[in-house]
Amino acid sequence: TLTREYRQVLQSLDEARALRDAEDEDMRSLAEAEIEELLPRSEALERRIKSMLLPGDKRDERNVIMEIRAGTGGDEAALFAADLFRMYSRYAEARRWEIDLLSESDIGIGGYKEVIFMVKGKGAFSRLKYESGVHRVQRVPVTESSGRIHTSTATVAVLAEVDEVEVDIPESDIRVDVYRSSGAGGQNVQKNSTAVRITHLPTGLVVACQDERSQLQNKLRALSILRARLYEIEEEKRRNEMEQSRRSQVGSGERSEKIRTYNYPQSRVTDHRINVSTYNLAGFMQGYLLDDFIDELSTRDEADRLSSVGEEEEE
What we know:
Layout: H1 2-19, H2 25-53, E1 64-70, H3 74-94, E2 98-106, E3 112-120, H4 124-128, E4 133-139, E5 150-160, E6 174-179, E7 195-200, E8 205-209, H5 215-243, E9 258-263, E10 268-271, E11 276-278, H6 281-285, H7 290-314
Parallel strand pairs: 4-9
Antiparallel strand pairs: 1-3, 1-5, 2-3, 4-5, 6-7, 7-8, 9-10, 10-11
Helix pairs in contact: 1-2
């Protein structure tokens, strides 16, 4: 096992250190060479053992509810929100995950004021949790005639799907309003009031769903989103209590935090948490290169948590 190997390496290190003071010069040289070889091995084994002892995130294997909202920048921000939705859809498709659209509010020219969707697949949360935050785009909007570069933003929230057992929402805590779905007109207009808006009275959170054909389906979807949001609020409280003033180097995942810039004139994507860039923006927006950033974010996150464990041990 790993611990047995670690003990053996430590024992060999102790023996080599004892021989470092030997009178025989050849013996001393051999001891120094052995120490040089064993030290990196012992450090690597120690990191692996600590890594195994780190508490895992119980949400990692869950499905994900992602919310993308246009920020500053008007129509251009809404078009960027749609670009991000396509990027995550392609990334999910490449991993054979399923995308399920829960709610959308479009602007009619291919952009979204807001789009909420579920990503179903093994380990979805473990990969996508690093996407929470403000995404910034720098480019010339299609509506800009003078060729001036604009800066717009979209906000991404990543929530783990939770079930009714974990977050119980009493009926007395919610107000349910039903209304007629807004369609494109003609045949598409719903004659029945199937859209549902749920207001969570204790927190003031509001969730609306209108994409399903029945009132019941829309209510179930809205409750699913509400549960995920309430769970995330509790998780954030718990994390803050555990970490106190400490913040992970890869970012807290707060929605106000600018995490990434997409610069179209330079074909560059930069993740500000890890200070890593790629100059293949087109490939990144196809979802191909997202894993490179996620792998680095995951590695840095683990390293930061390991150093936190080390600090606690010293205290």
